Each structure stands twice: as C-alpha cells, then as structure tokens.
Fold these 3 entries.
Entry 1:
Amino acid sequence: MQYDNNTTRIRRLLLVRLAQLAFENKLVENIDRIPIEVRPKGSPHDRCCVHKERAVIKYRLMASLGFKVEDEADELMTLGQYAQLALSREKVTQSDLTVIDEACSACVRTNYFVTNACRGCFARPCAVNCPKKCISFVEGQARIDSEKCVNCGKCMKVCPYHAVVYVPIPCEEECPVGAISKGEDGVEIIDEAKCILCGKCMAACPFGAIMSLSQIVDIIKNLLSPRKTVALIAPALAGQFDASLEQVVGALKQLGFDHVVEVALGADIVARRESIELAERLGEGDPFMATSCCPAYIYAVQKHVPELRPFVSKTCTPMHCAAEIAAQQYPDALRVFISPCAAKIKEAVDDPLVDYTLTFEELGSLLVAKGIDVADAEPQPADLPAHASGRGFPVSGGVAEAIKDMTDDESVLHDEIKPELIDGISKQSLKTMKNYALHGGDFNVLEVMCCEGGCVAGPCVIGNPKTATKRVQQLRSESKIKIPDKICPGERDLNG
C-alpha cells in the first residue's frame, strides 16, 4: 500500500501538473517549467541544492511520461522532447519499474548499528556472543566492523539496553524475491528476470526513487480525441473514494470516458468458470486448485515457484474477460483498465484487448487536474454492471468466496469447498506455496493475494485499505448474487 508521506505527495503533485498541461494542450511547451515552478530559486530543499531537487523532479516527470530513466541516452534532451515522443506514440510497450538514480540515496549496507544508547557494560554480551568477533569497544562504546559482520543479529538480541538496531535497505528488505540489489555505484538495480512487479520496493523506498511507467499522457490524448473510450474499472476502485460506486462512474463520465464497464462483471463470469474447473480438477484427482486475479502471483509462480504451476487455474483473468465483453459491446472504442497495482500494467500491456492502463493514483490526479470532486459527481450506473461475487474479488478471501457462490446449490462441491488463503507474498509465503505444491494440505482452493488484504492495499491505491475493505464489503452485501449464463472461454497463459 502507499502511505501518506512527502514522496507520495510530490509524485501526485507532479502528476496533477502534468495532467493540467496535457488537458490544456500545453504539455510540450511548458513541461520544462515544472521543475523550476515546484522548486524555485531560494526555496527550501531536502537534498544538497535546488539543482539536485530539480534534476530529481525532471526524472520523475520522465517516468510519468512513460520513459525509463535507465534508457536516457542524451542528458540534454528536454522534457518537452520526451513529451512530444509520448504524444506521438501509438502503442505503449514498456511496463517495467524504473529507478531514478538521482533520487536513490545508495543506502549503506550496514544492517546492524550501535547507537549512543550503548553503556559499554561490563557484561558485554554483544562482543561475547558475536560469532565473527567483529565487535570492539572504542571510548567505552561498542563498534561493529561492517567488513567482518555477517548480519546474524545476535548482538541486537542480547543487548540489555537495546542499543543495537537493525538498519535495513528498505527496497531490498521489502522485495520478496530478491529482485533488487546495488550496482557498482551503489544505486539500486532491478533484475527483471526475477521481478514480479509487486510494487513493494516502490512503496518502501523513502526517497521515492522507484516508479512505475505512466501512460497518463496517452490516455489524456485519447480522452481529448473524438474516439470513444471505455473505462474498465477494477473492483477495488469502489472503495477508494468517500462516495458511492455510481458517483465514481459519474466522475469518470465527467472526466471524458464514454462508457464504464465493471471488471467485477468479468470476475463474476471468471468465478463461475473456476467453479466448474475446480469440480473438474477434483474429479480428476487434483488435491487443489490455486487461484487469484493477481498477476504478481502468476509472475511469482512462473519465476520462483514453478512447482505450483500445475495447480494454477487456467481460467483467464477478470480484466481480460471484461475487456473481451467491452470489445464486443463497443468494438471501435479504446479500452482503458483502471488498476490498483503495477503488475496489472504489465498484464494489460501484454493483453491485445486492453489499450492503456491508469492507476488509481493517476486517476485521482486526473480528477484533481480537472477540478472534479467524486463526492459531488452526479450518480450514474455503470454501462455494464456486476454482481456481488465479482465485487468481492479485491478483498482477501473474496475470490474463494466467489467460487463458492458460483457453485450450483445442488452440487456436492458447494458444501465441500475448503479455502486456504495466502494473504500477501513474502519470502516465507513463497516457501509455503512451494510446500503446498509438493505436499498439499487440508484445503482444495488456494487463494493467493500478493498484497496483504488484497487489491484494496495495492501499491497504487489512494484510499486507506481498511476503509476501502469496509466499503467493498458493504457494496458486496448490498448486491445480488447471480450465476452468469456466459462462461468465459479464455485461458490464462502460464508460459510467461
């Protein structure tokens, strides 16, 4: 999840400025003024100088225009030139995270540090218990030799004054798959062969040095064009604003979207298909079926837990199913998926039925740029609405519950569904997933959510996850459960 702090505030401020210029058709001419306007000469700055601040802002804007900072070939290339390229491109092909080297503080790899709370006690349990004898005493205080330290943490455990603290590298600490590490210059590098696009490093970095590539300019360009545009709204969007779902739909229409389709409608259909698939699998002797609408979990299986692959549901995702329905209903319209996370951006880029992706954070910036308050928007129903089961997908346990909803009442399976939840992907939960793949367990449906709490706590959300969960659950309870007539024929591609 994203927390309210200075890095999120500056990122959102820049997105709003970018959007305002794009809506006014002044992006190319005026974007290079944004760093100067945000950090004028003589203004307070957190880094060494105002010029460093402006350089970081430039690269933030570069990522917001959809370009990787690592791909910069000419430092003299202006933001206006990047904006021109962004406005002229017909298709987005990049979906990776980018590291802003100017913003990365190159955190020192000293995991254990002795604070001035050290009393230099006679017992000296830290030095006595250190297996590498890397602790010495200087002027009555303990010192750790970082060259010898193996980060076992014994000194911290035995210190009676809690004078030894653990100092992590936040992005590396949060990454569950070891996909981010230091380069030779100390700046973090993301290994795309390992990365599952969970966005945990992006949310964890206290310097805001990691960003997803935005498609906000491409979307605004199309909203201003005569071509019809369809918003495919992820179920978690219902909990992001202090307003009804109908008001969110009204705000999207006010923003310029011609049609709004609930991806939860696709989730209804997917849940029905998965209930049938589960019955088939159990009938063929499979111990369980693994499921989720989360692409980060699929990337984790593909890259890190291949043992689980045979058990993963082959049914396509709700996003794909909803995009397929929208393509049939509005064949000439552009389809924009509105997403709570970075992993969905890649899924959308790889899906020919989805043209662009807008994160919740970016949507919020567009609304601010246009002066639209969702709470004041005129309520309108979605053009293609969903039902209770699909609307519960973004909360942990919601997918498994939807599958149970979609089993026929007379089916033996209806009362035999036993779910097991992986609520958040971590180093430990990856081991658990592997163990389940090899040995099974007392369950027959394994639901895996990358973000703890579900999609309502994704790295690109703007609402408080606990509040969003309550709103989603309330909407689900107020909606009807309906078994769809249509069964989604699409299958998930597990080959990467």
Entry 2:
Amino acid sequence: LEDLGLAMAIRTLALDAAARMDLNLDLDLTEVPLEMPPDLEQCLYRIAQEALANVLHHADAREVQVRLSEDKRLVTLTITDDGRGFALDDVNGAEEFGLRGMQERAGLVGGALDVASSPRHGTTVQLKVAIPDD
C-alpha cells in the first residue's frame, strides 16, 4: 500500500484474481486522497482481498467488477460477481467467518459493509466509509 497506493494495490489484487480463475474483469478505480489514514487504507485493501478470495473459492463466477470511488470524503469499494450467490441465512463455517471478519474490519474504521446475494444471482460486497477530516 505504501509503495503502490490503494487504487494500484487493489488493481493488482483484482488482476491476479481474474488471471487465476480466467474471469472477465471490469475495473473502475479512482485514486483516493493521499491524506487517508493508513488504517482506513488497510481496511479497504483487506476487505477487497477477502471479497476477491470469496469470488475465487466460492462463486464459480465468469465476471467480476471492482469499483473504488471517492465523493465528498466518502470512499466506496464495491465488488460484484455473477457467480452462484448464496442465501444470506444459509451462511456458515468459513464463509460466515469471512463475512463477519469483513463486517468487523468495516466497523473498526466507522464504515458500513453491505453484502447482497441470492442463489444463482451473484454477490455484491460494498463498503462505504468516510475519510476523517483530521
């Protein structure tokens, strides 16, 4: 993160994931402000990493979209796949741990994580977090 910046680090994650599983990748990454605190950058990166790992291990997807944007100091990270999806009520084991871990990470930086999925309709993981003014 320190060397590449957040957008390039997420780009590298996404390109690697797409190459490993032969996924069509749609990237839309905006460089976020340099004054973002390191813990916030780390949170965004780790959630992107976990969401992409879930696509690789569980989704059986053909396409994945990765979006990173910033508007009025609100950063939004969205990762969407066209895979098998799942019923949120049926999550257990490692999947539950991964989703809970992402929720906890988001909470530590004051962010909101939303996971939307249903069987045969893919999954969207979206994190919204405000960049502090200090």
Entry 3:
Amino acid sequence: MDQAREGAPASTARRGPASAHDIGAIFRRHQDAYRRTHALGAVERRALRDICVCRTGALGGHRDVCDGCGFDRLVYNSCRNRHCPKCQALRQARWVEQRMQRALPVRHFHVVFTLPAELRPLVREHEVVLLDLLFAAAAETILELARDPERLGATVGVTAVVHTWGRNLSFHPHLHCIVTGGGLSDGGTWIHCREKYLLPVKVLGLLFRGKFLAGLSRLFQHGRLSPGPRSSQAVKQLLEPPGFARLKNALYDKSWNVYAKAPFRNSAALFRYLGRYTHRVAISNHRLIGVDDREIAFRTRNQEVCRLAPLEFMRRFLQHVLPRGFVKVRHFGLLAAGAVNTKLAAARVCLETAESSRTRASTVLPVDWRALLLQLTGVDLTICIHCGGSFNTGPMVEPAPLDSS
C-alpha cells in the first residue's frame, strides 16, 4: 500500500474532522488571518499547509466498502509531515521496534540537559548551529565522564532527542538522553554501573556548561553567530563583543540544569517510553480542552490550563517547526552508526544470552499499517462496526481543490 495513505481513517466530512478540538481544524479556520499577520519561512508554510489538509479531501484517499451490509466510509490520506500531531503514532511504533533490534539487555538511564533561559533568544536566531552544539556538548559530557577510570571506565551508548518546547508551548530547548547503565571497557569487557546511579548530576552540569560555553565562544569567534537583518535589538546587543562577554560571564556564574531519572530495568519499557519523546510534537489534540474564536485552552502541568488567542497559539506551535533536514534523534558512543558492527556487537556478545537473542530477533512489526494499528490499539479497521463483515478497499478518491494556498 502506498505509504502516503498510511494513517487511521478520518471523518467522512469533505474538509476533515468535525471536532473543533482538533489542531488541524484550528489551523484551517485561522490560517488566512495568520498568513496576513505573520511572516512565514518555507518550512513553517509547509507545516501549516500540511496540518491543514491532513486527512481531509484535499489529499484524496479511497473508499472502503463492507462486503456484508454495504456500509461505506471514506479514508483520507495523511500528510506525513513530522510536525503533524496526527501522523506520528505508526511511525513511532516502527522506530521503537527498529531501536529494539539494537538495544542492549541492560538498565538504561534518562538524562535531561536544559539550556538556560538567557540562551533562548540566540538559539531561536541560530537554531541549527546551537542545537547541534547542544547535542555535541551533552553527548561529549556523558561519554567523557563515563570513560573516566574513577567513574565507570567504559564507553556507554547514548540516544538523544531534542525538544524545543515547554508545556505552555514556550520556546524551551532541552535534550532527552537515554544512556546504557554500563559500558564496554577498553579491554572488551562489560562494566555495569551501580543499580540506581550512573554519573554524578552536579558534575554532569558543570562539564556540560563548560563544553557548551567553550563551543559557543568558538562559534562567536568564527563569525557563526552574526545578527541577521531581522534580529531583534536584544539579540544584536548580545552579539556585540561587550554583550557577549557579559552573557558568557553570567552563564558561567549560574548552575545549569541536568536531571537524571530513575533507571529502566528493561529495554522494552525504555524504548516505548523514549518513543513518546522521539515522535512527540509541541502539542497533541488530547490536551485541548476548549476551542472558540477567542481562545484556545489546553492542559499544561498539574492540571493547570493555558489560554491563548488562536493566532498566538498558532505562532507558538509553528516556532517549534524544525529546519528542513535537521536530525532530531542522534546516537553516540556504542550506539553511533560507526560502532554498530564493532563496539556495539562486542558489547552484545558480552551481555546477550541465546534466549535474549531469539526474543530480540522475533520482535518484528507488521508492514501493513492496518495490522500495525490492530497490534498497537486492538482496533481492527478491516471489520465493519455495523455487521461484522469485512471491508474491501474501493475506488480512489481524487484530491479536492485547496480552499487557500
């Protein structure tokens, strides 16, 4: 089946889901006003368009017909944009199973690196280079400390995923890292860490701060952080030599937030948990609790509610659209691409029993998206809800003209 059709069926309404508590519906209703009042880059325009048309008649689809009672339904195609709230579940499931094929049978730790608020204007201005630096500084911090003979004395595996949002959709760049609870020594043996302790969090914070600020200084010295024509006055002042020096001194004087969560005892639970992070977007439909033309209300933390005007809601959402081609999930140490057939294979030989090898090899997801949805949710889209008969895929539905560009 063409991958462009992958996704659960939408409403049979021609323009998409009927529920107002739907991000696509909000975008469709307010997209023209947003375009008139906000400058959009190419990736933001594409994300806005895709979310508006996802699982609507604009993308076409096909008609399923029950062979028992004749009931029919329209199944519209998905946009497959990585920022669309409706297009992540099946992709996430396949990613998790792919990672499970490489997962080591050890405890894993979840470590979160957060950039200070003072850096957020610069990250918004120079997103690619500074998020690249966030990945590099965090991974080097973990690997360097773990290799220290006075700590673990081994090379660990790291999977990292970047998020740029807080629960209220504010810009809040941080990195989620999943780290193996132990590593491969230079002598080729596996060294386990302590049951509930990987590395000292305070030392992680200090080393991360030093590596990130050293990298930031190099970028500044090489002219990689020059202000652009649309830079705010505050950003221009930060990127003047006196302003940059003051910023760097202030950042050296404060503690940087690094948080380590309790370890996962098995890799299956770990990667299902991580899958929620790798394919999460800034907000999903289930968090919306009230929608009208004046405000969008959604849940944040501890049952608190954030209320935003529709155009502000759209602005906050679209500020988290990543640059084209930016890789948001990266692997380091034992899990780096260059180590898969060498260090990772050696670590698996140290750890893996014949039984765990058979279990890992037998975990294969179905290719067809309907079968995958059945496995994940128990919902069988091939069975008619009216008579229990089977649906047959009927004629294709051609895309409808777009309402606006």
